[in-house]
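Case study B.
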Amino acid sequence: SINGDRLWESLMEMAKIGATPKGGVCRLALTDLDKQGRNLFVDWCRAAGCTISVDKMGNIFARRPGRNNDLPPVITGSHLDSQPTGGRFDGVYGVLAGLEVVRSLNDLGYETEHPVEVAVWTNEEGSRFAPAMVASGVFAGVFDLDYGLSRADTEGKTMGQELARIGYAGEAPVGGRPVHAYFEAHIEQGPILEAEGKTIGVVTDAQGQRWYELTITGVESHAGPTPMTRRKDALLGAARIVDLVNKVGLANAPRACATVGMMQVYPNSRNVIPGRVFMTIDFRHPEDAVLAGMDQAMREGVARICGEIGLDVQIEQIFYYKPVHFDDDCIEAVRKGVAEHGFAARDMVSGAGHDACYLARVAPTAMIFIPCIDGISHNEIEDATPEWVAAGGQVLLRAILEKAGQ
Amino acid sequence: SINGDRLWESLMEMAKIGATPKGGVCRLALTDLDKQGRNLFVDWCRAAGCTISVDKMGNIFARRPGRNNDLPPVITGSHLDSQPTGGRFDGVYGVLAGLEVVRSLNDLGYETEHPVEVAVWTNEEGSRFAPAMVASGVFAGVFDLDYGLSRADTEGKTMGQELARIGYAGEAPVGGRPVHAYFEAHIEQGPILEAEGKTIGVVTDAQGQRWYELTITGVESHAGPTPMTRRKDALLGAARIVDLVNKVGLANAPRACATVGMMQVYPNSRNVIPGRVFMTIDFRHPEDAVLAGMDQAMREGVARICGEIGLDVQIEQIFYYKPVHFDDDCIEAVRKGVAEHGFAARDMVSGAGHDACYLARVAPTAMIFIPCIDGISHNEIEDATPEWVAAGGQVLLRAILEKAGQ
Ligand SMILES: NC(=O)NCCC(=O)O
Ligand SMILES: NC(=O)NCCC(=O)O
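Model:
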């Protein structure tokens, strides 16, 4: 059994790094604050007797040896980076729940057959650097290393540069080694578990995602003397595309999600008809065929809208992965942990992407969800109860023991 | 007669300060580049024998004495600041046409009865600091000095601070002195003159304007696990408001203009449903009653849109002036200049706001427009021909002589 109080205290300690006025966290990937968070994690892991390795994507692995260190490790973990207005649990919970498992195994003097590693994956959020989960993607062979290191933020700084700057450009090769199993604990980030009074979500699947970047080009011109009918207003086009995206989401509800999260207007001056807009689209659905239909509806709608106004448009799909089904054996290991403690649980499909979605390509994988208050995440007010936090840790411990060999 | 070549050369020389790759100018108000432009203007005016005074809003007045210096001056001028992606003529043309009138009077050894002053008004564009024409507004008693000096850019820097920083926080009181007449030459910034093959626009009126700032607040949340029907997406509301603003403009076309030029999305992250949007609206019409109707239609539409999505909204009208009718006597002076040279001309209503709109409250005022290519302004490709530029200068000289006393 894990120590729920210690896990909670560690979460609250880590939440001080990048704490925001509204009780959240801003710890964007590869900033000085991310470095501070990583250093604290590394210190804690060393104190718990782990050896640390960092790979070329800055992924950190804290290893607790097993009885047979020639066997591939059971890995658990998640990410320490946050959204600009993120919460205290998203990602960091999975990392510190993994650390708590290690600490508990130490307390119990328990040796596993396989080594156990706690992983911190770089830039999971995809907020500072798009796309999401890029470093676990390199680990899983989905992206190559050059692609990963060359992802740039809006100022043009690359992940490679920023990893070097904060001292986390490691030496270890990225991936390419056997992983016996991967487990990731996470908050649900949606409303279902709390609404149904369940403590644990047994995550069997994750929905597919497609992310796009659109650049819409019109003619910038003076807001005063330019007649309405002579305008090529890029923001008018972008606005209609926001509405279109929403309609595409609703047409495929309740399971589809469709979001425009980012928009940049040029020159963004009050009395200038905007000449250019950069915007993003995020589509999700548990069925790949529906996702393809949403893609088509979006492309047709965008072409129509831009044609009507006389705008040029470039659409680039920058991120795509099909719905993921996790490993039945690992799911079974999670179920056993739930049963042992008698937690109220249900099967779920993850609405968010997680490093587990890429790990699933190279290792038997499953995830454990706990509820979050009002289903709110990617928001400073994101919250969870100490009971939920502890429950997820208990299930994680059992699942890891199941695969790591008792 | 003025020297059109010299005027053109001065324009091209000034256009080097803040020159952009696409042939335009970025010389935002009270930046280092604005300072350079001001310094060059002051040097040129001193070389032309003018005395310089700078008032507390940073407005510059270059004075050529008259025969009777107790008489109030005839002032001409415009602004040196530009949009972020502005052109080589907007504003600077009126300033340098005024300087060319002074230089030509010197060449001719011509003494006027009234002194003649060339004015540079601070922050006409309203791009870095909103609203537009704020310093000529203080001069005309529309705004008080504290209001003017406390206007802040998006980083919170005030006009007062930035005037001091660039060395243009002058000593002279702002306005409160008699002005015998005010003339402003400007590019049309719209398509009418060029389309009709006219060289000069005799500006009899300027349309009224209302500017608004809207802050729309929803709930930021995760783009993946948050069902479409549970969202309070601030950007969806903002997008529908952009479409509404366009509809309000079209409903009052051909004379109305309605523009959303600026939009800032928070937290502006690809996989976060936006929780807050800041946006601006710019409404214009030559009739105040129509402008009031547009205001009402906008407010009703915004309330409906935000109500439907469950968003909070704050609307602040930050700028409002009624349509302006210029002084019939000054208009007559412009007509005489046109007639003398036989330029093809027509009467016009200005679609843009100009410092002349505020000067008209404290002095007999009129404006002279020249065409611009394709009617495009507030764009780096803004352009005009040397012939148009010279023609406007000729008319300005005649109008000034008419009022300053030959
Ligand atoms: N868990 C999480 O917030 N992941 C970020 C990637 C996504 O948007 O799904
Ligand atoms: N002339 C000009 O561009 N003025 C800026 C104020 C306005 O937008 O009308």
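The first strand of chain A starts at residue 51 and ends at 54. The remaining cases will be described in the next quarterly update.
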